[in-house]
Amino acid sequence: MRIDFQQGNRITLLETGTEYFPALIAAIDAAATEVHLETYIFANDPTGLAIANALARAARRGVGVRLLVDGFGSRDFMKVFGASLAEAGVEVLVYRPDLSTFRLRRHRLRRLHRKLSVIDGRIAFVGGINVIDDKNTPGQVPPRYDYAVCVEGPLLEAIHKSVHELWGLVRWASFRHRFGESPLQLPSIAPCGDMTAAFVTRDNLRHRRDIEDSYLEAIAAASHEIVLATAYFLPGLRFRHALMQAAGRGVRVVVLLQGRVEYLLLHYAARALYGVLLDSGIELFEYHRSFLHAKVAVIDGRWATVGSSNIDPFSLLMAREANVVVRDANFAAALRSSLQNAMDSGAVAVKRDQWKRKSSFMRGLNWTAYGLVRLMIGLAGYGRRQ
């Protein structure tokens, strides 16, 4: 796979919603021509209301505002925000409305999981942060731990093209308009920094494995350290073997995982793999201070990625995802430092000898959960080559 890296970008790391939401709202409030926002979850909470109000303000002053939400992750969105946003002039589309709750079919798992926004073709945000309040989650020290990036420069061309093409596709599929509509604003692609970066997506057509392959290429080339943080970790054979082979050739491999139970089945399924990973020399840390929602990695202090894609079958095989890959030592150092701080202040190392002493009941529970997840993937028609 060939990744199209672009030079001359300015990529700013945003840590948690504390940094991301004010930056997003400020950009929307400064918009003059176009706002385009995609999200998996758009919650009915103070953060959701603040973003909705910003979109409405932009539309009322004549900005073309387009909002695309996922039909499962934001299944109550239209009932809560639809009428008021439409009245303000915001154009809203729902990606694959979740019409049947109890039928497991392949298309139900093909969700819009990416979190993207482009404002006036001059600035974009890419990451893993949904439009949801991350400060009021019971039982945790806030905020939810996640990342996004603010992008300026030539990389905007690829991001802008991606959001516009998906908008047109969903509009066409919804019988709302013809496919191929012209964008409201052409992207500003003049160099404005010195960072080299690429925009990588996953879909079910031409880019089915681009994000996974970008990880595997970087892992295969690693010489001294791989630090990976992901909320949901259920890698297939290729990804597991790549990490284990890296550890086997002397590369330090560190994986920071969700320690709190958010989705019961995925939590226990991921733990089924702990034994073989620890045996291969991979270091595992579980983050307990709050909910870990990050989907990032740093390799050899010069390659980094931030985006929406977890390392699990749902992200790597089914959902629409988007990541930014950055080749820049300063950016990689900033993300690496942030991850180290998360491990030092809120994570616990999983020790190999302690893990080996887990009861047979817990081992059985983990492997049962793993088997159920694999069965679900198989029923949905996926799972081969994994």
Topology summary:
Blueprint: E1 6-15, H1 16-29, E2 34-39, H2 46-60, E3 64-70, H3 77-88, E4 91-95, E5 115-119, E6 123-127, E7 147-152, H4 156-173, E8 195-202, H5 210-221, E9 225-230, H6 237-248, E10 252-258, H7 264-271, H8 274-279, E11 283-287, E12 295-299, E13 303-307, H9 313-318, E14 321-327, H10 329-346, E15 347-350, H11 352-356, H12 360-379
Parallel strand pairs: 2-3, 3-4, 9-10, 10-11
Antiparallel strand pairs: 1-7, 1-8, 2-5, 5-6, 6-7, 8-14, 9-12, 11-15, 12-13, 13-14
Helix pairs in contact: 1-2, 2-3, 5-6, 7-12
Task: Describe the model.
With 386 residues, the protein is of the alpha+beta class. The protein folds into two domains: 10-195, Endonuclease Chain A (Endonuclease, Chain A); 198-379, 2-Layer Sandwich (Endonuclease, Chain A), CATH 3.30.870.10. It has twelve helices and 15 strands. The protein has helices at residues 16-29, 46-60, 77-88, 156-173, 210-221, 237-248, 264-271, 274-279, 313-318, 329-346, 352-356, 360-379; strands at 6-15, 34-39, 64-70, 91-95, 115-119, 123-127, 147-152, 195-202, 225-230, 252-258, 283-287, 295-299, 303-307, 321-327, 347-350. Strands 4-3-2-5-6-7-1-8-14-13-12-9-10-11-15 form a 15-stranded mixed sheet, sandwiched between helices. Helix 3 (77-88) links the parallel strand 3 (64-70) and strand 4. Helix 2 (46-60) runs parallel beside helix 3 (77-88), helix 5 packs parallel to helix 6 and helix 7 packs across helix 12. The longest helix is centred in the last third of the chain and has 20 residues, at 360-379. The radius of gyration is 20 Å and the shape is globular. The relative contact order is 0.15.
